[in-house]
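REVIEWER CHECKLIST
Item 1: Sequence provided? yes
Item 2: Single chain? yes
Item 3: Sequence as submitted:
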Amino acid sequence: MVDAVSSFGMLAPYALLFALFIAVPTAVAIGLSFTVFDAVQTPSFVGMLNYITLLTQDEVFLRHVLPNTFTFAMIVGPGGYILSFFMAWILAQIQKGPRTVIAMILFAPSMVGGVFVTAIWRAIFSGDRRGLVNSFLLEWGIIEQPIQFLMSANWLMPIIILVSLWSSMGIGFLALLAGVLNVNEEYYEAAYVDGLNNRFQEIIYVTIPNMRPQMLFGAIMSIVGAFSAGWIGVALAGANPTPQYAGQLVFNHIEDFGLIRYEMGYAAALSVVLLLMIWFFSKLSYYLFGEKDD
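Item 4: Structure as written out by the authors:
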């Protein structure tokens, strides 16, 4: 009895925080997704209407938002993950002092605020002659007139992907670095005795198998980051929706309907769809890197 009470007391703070900030908001969002709600009047139950509208009548979602989201997530998610692991592995090969400095430099973009990130990249891709890219292209005679990079449907998404990859090395990167550093050196020695030939085999057969928890955590953080990075496109373009919906992701679509149009029920349905996307890819990550015995 005493052990049960002690265990409950230890779990209670976590359970309370989990309920307040995850379980209850998720349940409320799912409930609101079956209603019409304008944030003022009482929600009106409409069943599956929001989901039917989403899949049959929301042309912007089907033609722009959904393809943009999957394109962005398929590049930034795996790309940022592989880049984080590659940089973590490289840093593990150098001395502690330089490693710490370089790791902080790589981690810094994920810590700075959105305003700072936007100011840097808007200056680089500014649509006038003062923009660094336009200035370079004009000086070398590659173009005759400045390009409106952040207003162009052809350029906005590649720039969003570039900025996202630049700022992708956050907590997941630090976890991967810790994982690489904590692999027992004796495993490498034993592997080379057994016939290991090069560093690539070392990574595949020794490093990755011995840091599965960090690999799983890094993968999930990359997935969540990729599906929730919609603020970058709006910050760069300066508007939601983005020009010609070129940088419009599910995250932006939720903000558009929820915070601009106040169609909370429809925004809740979109958030449930986004949650299911993240859940699916998180399960895929667990299948690849989780413990097989569980």
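Item 5: Key structural point noted by reviewer: The CA atoms of residues 150 and 156 lie 5 Å apart.
Item 6: Recommendation: ____
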